[in-house]
Amino acid sequence: MKTILVTGGAGFIGSNFIFYMMKQTPKMRIVCYDKLTYAGNLSTLRPIMDAPDFRFVKGDVCDREAVFRVFEEERPDVVVNFAAESHVDRSIEDPGVFLRTNILGTQTLMDACRAYGGVRYHQVSTDEVYGDLPLDRPDLFFTEETPICTSSPYAASKAAADLLALSYFRTYGLPVTISRCSNNYGPYQFPEKLIPLMIANALADKPLPVYGTGENVRDWLYVEDHCRAIDLIIREGRVGEVYNIGGHNELTNIELVKMICRELGRPESLITHVADRKGHDRRYAIDPKKIHGELGWLPETKLADGLKRTIAWYLENRPWWEEIVSGEYQEYYRKMYGAR
Ligand code: NAD
Ligand code: DAU
Fold first, then answer.
1. Distance (Å, rounded) from C-alpha 336 to C-alpha 93?
2. Side-chain half-sphere CA neighbours of 10 within 13 A
3. Of all protein residues, whose CA lies closest to atom 23 belonging to ligand 2?
4. Where would you tag: which of 76, 120, 171, 320 has the fewest CB atoms within 10 A of its CB?
5. What's this model's pTM, rounded to 2 decimal places?
């Protein structure tokens, strides 16, 4: 039986990936290694905590001793690294922890892979490493050849980790792949991100804070489509390669927020334009030609359907997110939105 080490598996995409892999590949041992920062939520993993082939280990990816201990105990065949500080706004306020976790954490994990040998390493990255595209050029898309050109400290930290991963492939021959995905949405996303934030605020009849004009475009991907792509890459992807994931689901923020209002039966008058994000990327848009051609992957969930499913999940799982928004999140919200 193969063992897969999923770092950051108590967060949004990592937990969805664990659920996906348990369904897809039942004969696999899954070890989740997560520091449980503000974004990690053990209650997400509660239903599988006692599953026979699952183990949760609380730990920091920057803690060499703890990382090497889990490698010694579990001897993973594959590592999929989701562990990261992931919110752009927080990186603008305080970049330090982003550099530490996202870069040094990646180094520590790859050092452990080298030390134990024969470990396949996958780095979960982002389309934000490419910077942004102009709004008046809908013909342009991010390909794997688009130059790295980061806007936020978050994006810069992810780009640094990507370069480090490629250097470990070239220098040490570590079997590495990288995926660069567009904006995900779906169940278990922390309510600081656009879609769950708007759902939670709309349900409470609170203002819906749209940054700037709201004309910025994101390329939305249902989280399960992302998980399927990563599964394909770790099984069939070519090592040393980068794969873009996403495509065909572009929308302006303002249109998206209006869709959420319509789905929830809330008035658009809740929409409040607030001060723009510093260095706000204008448009992300993925060209998925490479992953489609090599691995046969394309997104399966259309935004309209995925959004309905996501909203239904947030309505059916109120305790999961209401607990989050009632705690220290209040302080975060005051700080980020209070004087905006
Ligand atoms: P998230 O913030 O929801 O979860 C991150 C998880 O990592 C949390 O469980 C947290 O506890 C854990 N973590 C943070 N620091 C850690 C550390 N030092 N050691 C161990 N664990 C730590 O993030 P997400 O949205 O699920 O994103 C997962 C990955 O996917 C990230 O690498 C992110 O850059 C990338 N990504 C996200 C998106 C998106 O739209 N959310 C899109 C493309 C790529
Ligand atoms: O593209 C992939 C990236 O997508 C991931 O690498 C990041 O981890 C993930 O957080 C996401 O980054 P974004 O900055 O695009 O996501 P966010 O949900 O923060 O914002 C989406 C858009 O909505 C962006 O244009 C900013 C805008 N926005 C966001 C918030 C939180 C608002 O207008 N109002 C808000 O309150």
1. 9
2. 21
3. 194
4. 171
5. 0.98
